[in-house]
Design a protein that fits this description.
Layout lengths: L19 H93 L3 H23 L8 H9 L7 H9 L12 H20 L9 H18 L31 H10 L3 H15 L4
Helix pairs in contact: 1-2, 1-5, 2-7, 2-8, 5-6
Amino acid sequence: MTDDKTQVPLDEEQPEDIPDEEISSTQTEEGASSEETSSPIVDETQVFYHKTISRLKREMLRAQKENATLKEKLKHSEQVSSQMGQSALESFKANALTLMEKAKAAKKHAHEVSDIESIVLADEELAKAAAQWQWAQTVPLPSQQNPEESNASESQEDPDPHPATQAWVLKNPWINQESSLFQGEKASAVISYATALEQQLVAQGRGHEINTPSYFKDLDTFVRYWDGLQGGHKTMKPVTTVAPTKGTPSEGGQKHKDALTADEKEICRTMNISEAGYLKQKKALALERAGQF
């Protein structure tokens, strides 16, 4: 007995047809998902740029305000410096005049008591004070700068200091704001004097003398006057009286004109001092200004 099994052929599975609408819908959803993934990156980039630009604008405005503030402080400092310089120079003149009055009083007292030695000393002090007073009249005062000139100078870059100026500043650290020895009042007075001196040299056609040894000797002389004024009228180094010797060279080997101007002769007449004594002190003062002691 045979057991035949009849094999029934299986039907092949046919792929289901997917409507076009469903395919389109699926692609749309995938595209939307992709856009949702990239959108936050784009937004973060825009926010970053926006914040960066805003920060730069704030920094620029702050820098502009700080620059304006610094300019105002600089202008105020220049005004104060000019005023201090004028005040210092006027003080020098007043100091010289005071010394003259004291010398006159000392000479008068010496005559009253018939003290010959005191008369000689008083006459020498009077001549020295008169020479100092006359020199004080020639010290230039700093001129006020016009606003237009100030604005024009602000627009130009400051040139590098002259090598001679740098060397002088190194020898005088009290004028350097970055130095621990800085003295504001003294520095302002000397800077104002230097400015006025340069203006005077330029006006006289001697601008080439700026930053020369003679220029810095003038500054050193002014510094000594300033220090002397602050120290109590010790503005000049005392001059020792030496009897003249025939045929000897002039003091310090320098040649000076042995003549007084009309104004100087008038001073001698008014102060009742000898022209020879005045001339001697004038020469000593000239040597002092030249840095020769």
